[in-house]
Fold this protein.
Amino acid sequence: MTPKRRRLSIVLIGLVMLGTAAALVLTAFEDNLVFFFSPTDLQTKQISPDQRIRIGGLVEEGSWTKSDDGLVSTFRVTDLDNVIPVTYKGVLPDLFREGQGVVAEGRFAQGRFDASEVLAKHDENYMPKEVADALKKSGKWHGDEKQ
Amino acid sequence: MIAELGHYALALALCVAVVQSTVPLYGAARGDDILMSLARPAASAQFLAILVAFGALTHGYVTSDFSILNVAQNSHSLKPMLYKVSGVWGNHEGSMVLWVLILALFGFAVAAFGNNLPPSLRARVLSVQGMIGVGFLGFILLTSNPFERLIPAPLDGRDLNPLLQDPGLAFHPPMLYLGYVGFSMAFSFAVAALIEGRVDPAWARWVRPWTLAAWTSLTGGIALGSWWAYYELGWGGWWYWDPVENASFMPWLAGTALLHSAIVVEKRDALKSWTILLAIITFGLSLMGTFLVRSGVLTSVHAFAVDPERGLVILALLTIAIGGALILFAIRAPSMKLGGMFQPISREGGLVMNNLLLSVATATVFIGTLYPLFLDATTGEKVSVGPPFFNAAFVPVMMPLVLLVAVGPMLAWKRGDLPGAMARLWTAAILSIAAAGFVWSQQNDVAFGPIVGFAFAGWLAGGSITEWAERIALFRVPLATSLARAGGLPRSAHGMTLAHLGLAIFICGAVADSFWRQEVVVNAKPGETVSIAGFDLTLDKIERTRGPNYQTETAHLSVSRDGAPVTTLRPERRFYPVQQMPTTEAAIHSTFLADLYAAIGEGGDRQGWTVRVWHNPLVPWIWAGCLVMVIGGLVSLSDRRLRVGAPKRRTNAPSAAQVAGAD
C-alpha cells in the first residue's frame, strides 16, 4: 500500500466514522433536546404535555408549601410578569429558597408544571443564565447592579 | 506589605515571561547560543516569582488578613486550617494564580531537567511556555488581581462556600490543573517542533512523559471531583454530563488519544502531523475548559465564582493561542516528511483507529456541550442537553473502542495478523461470555444493557491480562522464569496493562450503577423504617450539635439486613451561619460490591424528616478503576525510558532489545 493510499483509507475510515457519529448525534438531539421556557413563554406558546421542557424564573415569595408527609412541594415560578404553579415530588436542593432563581425540568400540562427535577446550584450568588435572560425579557432584571 | 510583595512578584513574573517568550525564540532563529541560554534562567525566575506571589496569597489566607479583598470575600477566621489553605484556589483570582504557578512549574521542570534536549528545541519550547505565561499573567494582573486591598478591613471574612470545605475538593483543583496545564507542555513541544520544522522519535520520547504525567493527574483530578460530587452533594450520582464535567472530560479524551499517537511517532516515526495537531487540540480543549468553568456561559450545577466578562478574556487568549498554533500548523505541516509505512491491520492501524474513535467521541461531547450556546447565539432559543443525549451519542462510539483495546496490543507493528490475534484472545472471549452469563443468571427480568456492558468489560479485562501473560509466557515456562520475565518487561508495559484493566473495572462500575441503582425517598419520624435492596434502615433519632463553623443535625439510621445489624449511617444536614447556607452531608456504607447511601432533607420533629436512600451497586469500582488507571500511569511514568530527562544514549541499545523481546 502506498503512503498515499494509506492516507486515503485512513481519511475514508475517519469520514465514515464522523458520518456515523453525526447520525448518532442528530438522532440523539431529536429525542433529547430539552427546550427552556419562561413563564411568559408558557402562556403564549403551545406545548405538548408529552414534551420534556425546562422552566425557570424566581420562586415567588410566600408560594412554597409542602404536603403533610413533606414529600411533595408546590411553589410558583415567576418572571415577574406571569407565574406558573409547579409541583415536585422529592427533595429540593439545599439552596432552594423563596425569592431565588430556580430551574426545573419536567412536563407542562393543564396550566401546571410537573417537575421531575429541580436543579441545584452550589453557589447562592449564582443566577442561572436562562433565568437572568427570562427576567431581562420581562424587563424586571436588576441583577447587574449587584455584580 | 506581604500582599504588595506578592503583587510585585506577579508583575515581575510577567516581565520575565515577556523576555522568556521572545529572546530565546529570536536566539534560536539566529542560532545564537547566548540568547538561547537565557531561556532556562528565565523559566526558573518566572517560577520563583510566581511561587513568591502564591506564597504571599497563602500567607494572607493563613493569617486571615482581611485587608485583602480576596481573603475577606472567601475566608473566615473560624475556618479549619486545611480550608484556609485550600481557600486560596477556591475562588477565581486564586485559582488563576494556581494555574500560572503550575504552568511555570512545568517550564521550570524543562529548564531543570532538559539537559538532553537539543538547545534550540529547548529554547523554543520554553519560549512558547513563556508566551502562555504572558497571556495568563497579564490576564490576572489586568482583570483579576488577587492582592487588591480592602480599606478599612472588615472584622471577619465572608467565608468559603461551605460545599468547598471538604478534603476531596481541597485537592481536586490542583490535580485537575496539573492535568489541564500539563497539556501545555505537549502544546509547547508541538509548536516548537513546528517552528523547528522537525518531528522525530526523539521529540516523541520527550513529549510522552509530559503528556502521560498530565493525563495521570487529569484522570486523578476528574475522579476526585466526581467522587466529591458523589458524597458531598447528596444526589447519589457520580456523573451528570454537566458542562463543567464535560469541560474536564474533553481534554481527557483528546489527551488519551495523544498519549497513544505519540507512541506511534516514537516507535515508528509515523503519524507526525496528526500528533502535533492533537497536541494543539488537547491544550485548546484544556483552555476551553478553563473558559467554560470561569465564564459561566453554560448553566452548570458546578459553577463557582463565575464572571462572564473575565471569561471572555480567556476566550480571547484561547483564540490567539490555538488560532496561532493552527496557522503555524497549516504552514508547516505539509513540509513534514512522511514516516514509517504500515498495513491497515497492524499495531499502528489499531492506534489510528483508537485515535479516530477517541476524536469522534470528543466531538460528540463537544457538540453536546456547546450546542446550547450555539443555538442561543443564533436563534435565541434556549435548550439543555442532558445525560440521555450523551448516552445515545457517546456510548455507541466508545463501544467499538473497548473491543479494540483488547485486540490492538496483540497486533505486531507494521503488519499484524488479525485472525492470529483473535485466536490468542480465546481467554478474553471466555471471560466475556462468563461475565455476560453471570449477569444473565443474576437478573430477575432480563435486561440487555448490563449483559452487553459486562461482556465488553470482561473482553477488555481478558484481553489485557492475556497480552500481559503472553509477554511473560505465563504457564508456558516455569513460574520463576515468568516472574523474571515480568521483572524484565519495561514498566510502561505493566502500566499499559494496568490502565486498560482500570478501564475494564471502571466500565463494570459505571454499567452496574446506571442500570441497577435503586432509590427510595420517604418521610420518616424517629422509630420508622425504610427498606431498600434487602436492607432495613431505622431512623433512631436526630441529634443537633455544633461544628467549628456550622450547626448540624445528624440522623442516626441503624442499618440491618434480615434482622442482623450491619452498621449505623449518620447523614447530616449542616447550616453555615456566615454564608447562610445549608449543606447535605451524605452517609455512605461502602462494601466492595455496593454502596448504601443515605441523605436527609429538611424536617422537624412534628412533620418528620425526608430521608433519601440509594443502593448503588459496584459504585466503588468506578473509583477503583480510576485509581488503577492512575497507578498504571504512574508505573508507566517510572519507566526508565520515559523518565524526565531520560538520556538518549541509554535508550538506543537496551530499549531496542526490550522492544524486540516485547513484541
User: Anything to note?
Assistant: Chain B has four domains: 1-160, 161-365, 397-516+624-633, 518-620.
